[in-house]
Amino acid sequence: MRLLLLATCLCLTVPASLQLPSWTLLSGEQRTIEKCLRSYGGLNEENAGRLERYTQWSDSSEELPCFTQCYLNDLFEFYHDQAGFDERRIRQHFGDAVFEACKERLKLGADQKESSCEHAYAGFHCIVSLENDPFILIEKMPNVTRSAKSAMKKCLQQVDQVEWSRIGDYAQFPLTEPIPCFTRCFISQMQLFDERTRRWRLPAMRQSLGVPLVGAHTAGCAQRRARNPCATIYQQFNCYVVAV
């Protein structure tokens, strides 16, 4: 589940002079945004700018006080303005890794009987901030064992942090590896490929990573070649991943 408004940009029916970048709204989202802006004078030029700044997620306070609580309470089932965040639904929508990382901000304090504007913002800020976190994306990978995830995380820590944002690009199966040599690193860590004999340990890879699928047509994967060993490993591995 992606939080299209707050994670990226806004798409509202406003005068041309206030038009914001277009994006797909969640069902009922425009009505909710308009409702939550009423106490601030509705959507005018000043509030359009405040909403843009809101998506930059200040760590200290929200640009529009109590906007988050209004937005969440009106639009989503995982939050209620009295009970706060629902653990089961947070885990369902965002995954166990996100909940565990944010649980201190999501739960009510010992002296709190109901949620507050500050609590809603702090919890939601944490969720959105982690939505594209590379280590969370690795943690949420399906059919991947704990040891395989650990190897990926270790390899990610060995590359420049500037590269980390590209981890999500792997899900698109691009022809060129998004983070050079990342695949060779974790494949080597897990000993899934013997570079001396140039043989893949396919049963072990299937057990650890869930690929290639049983019965998939992979006959030509091991014959793929690229400009260097890292690129070759990626090309061959990617072939096993997408094989059907």
TrEMBL record:
Q: Where in the cell is it found?
A: Secreted
**Keyword DNA-binding (UniProt):** no
What processes does the entry annotate via GO biological process terms? Answer: sensory perception of smell
For this protein, the record's SUPFAM superfamilies field holds: Insect pheromone/odorant-binding proteins (SSF47565)
Keywords linked to the UniProt accession: Secreted, Signal
Q: Where is the signal peptide?
A: 1-19
The main location class comes to: secreted
The Gene Ontology terms for molecular function here are: odorant binding
InterPro entries tied to this protein: PBP/GOBP (IPR006170), PBP_GOBP_sf (IPR036728)
Judging by the UniProt lineage, the source's domain of life is Eukaryota
**Gene3D superfamilies attached to this UniProt entry:** Pheromone/general odorant binding protein domain
Annotated Gene Ontology cellular components are: extracellular space
- A matching Pfam family: PBP_GOBP
The entry's family comment says: Belongs to the PBP/GOBP family.
What is the protein's name according to its record?
A: Uncharacterized protein LOC111594418
The species is Drosophila hydei
Name of the coding gene: LOC111594418
